[in-house]
Amino acid sequence: MEEKILSTVILLPLFFLLLVEFETEAKAIDLPISPKKYQDMIHTGFNTNWFKRKNPMRHYSEQIIKDVRDKELGIDECKKDGKPCKHSLRKRPDKYNRWTRAVVNAIRNKTLTGSNNAKRILFLSSPEKTAVGLPKIDPEIYRNASYLMAEWHIYASGPVKKPTSLKYWTGNGDGVGKENVRIAIKNGTNFTENTGLLTYFAEWMPQDNNGGKINESEAIYFTRFFVKEIRKAKIPWSLNSLEKYYIMGKGKWRRRPLTIEGQQLNMSKILDNIIELMPKRP
């Protein structure tokens, strides 16, 4: 019997809940999925700008999901709206932990949310976005909890040419660029090794989405190295974002170059390089 199960809730520091749906075969709607199994099921995919649309169903359809699936990728249908928050929890780990603890307890409370949430997988977002902030999550929140995972990310707007940035990349990345990638991923794997909490890399992109300083060749060098490294770490990820690779209104993949911040990029070629190196779905 095939059941559609809403399996995860991602707790983000900006008072935002990210819900991820997927379909799986199950004998009962309350059949629990372990974080390890779910980490494998998340695999790789795209972020989308669902919540930026006033009428999202005019832009997103079942065919889009099928097209993405044919590329051996998945689709994460939710994305932060990017608006600044005056009360960001990133600067206040104490507030982050109080809020996160309260939300986790509320979701697990049968009286408040029903009986299906005791074993629902919840994602705890890093207080500082990157894996560096993961240790700031109060261990009491996830200690002895079997159905929790952590979310973190870097390169959400792509690599940059600023030498002092942790996202710095130039040319083929030899030296600092590649080391930045290794360190970023190592911070995530170290957290899992120290705590047992598995993680999910929520968003990244190969181009410099803000400054347009990374050319196509550099974007491909970065892409190939990043995908290889995160594949070795066995961390699932989402590519930011689907609209850069797929023409939503026409329901087809981009073939012509796309100009992003003044930089002309063949996104189809970049995507081919990603697909070539990413792990195949089981």
From TrEMBL:
Keyword Hydrolase among UniProt keywords: yes
Highest taxon, organism lineage: Eukaryota
The keyword Signal belongs to this UniProt entry's keyword annotation: yes
Cellular-component GO terms for this entry: cell surface; extracellular region
Example of a GO biological process term: glucan catabolic process
InterPro entries tied to this protein: GH, Glycosyl_hydrolase_5
MF (Gene Ontology): beta-glucosidase activity
Protein name as annotated: Glycoside hydrolase family 5 domain-containing protein
